[in-house]
Amino acid sequence: MTDHNKHIKNKRGFSLIELLIVVAIILIIAAIAIPNLMRSRIAANEASAVGSLRTLNAAEITYNVTYPNVGFACSLATLGPAASGTSASSSTAGLIYSNLASGVKSGYDFTLLSSNCAPANNIKTTYDYGAAPISAGVTGQRYFCTDLSGVIQYKASAAFTDSSGVCSAGTPI
User: Residue 90 and residue 158: Cα distance in Å, rounded?
Assistant: First the structure.
């Protein structure tokens, strides 16, 4: 045998046992890491929901100041962007981005919660918005709410419902 052939014969790859050990180690690391990643994703979605509710509060106040004869917008679509080529108006104020105006953002569903938005003397005097996880326990754990007070409240296990004093039933953040 030549030296070259001896060199090739002495080379060997990984054994099946070695490959199985590596795969087992990877699976153990994944089993440890995936739950932490899920918790991080839920925390990020919840932080985004709280930030979006702050944005809605600021947008409602801006809308109320800009259109005092209307009052509050009381609608995500009304706060949303105007159609391309048109200017902002009281029906499409352009105060929030289209992804929030659609009602779904970062694993949360945003909705107007109460009928308190009914006008008094044709001026809408209050609003209540809620944010509920699209899939509880997967996209978020907590349910959020905000109203004219600007305080963001949460509930750990139940959505806010349409009633008088909607947000007062939660825990302030």
Answer: 33
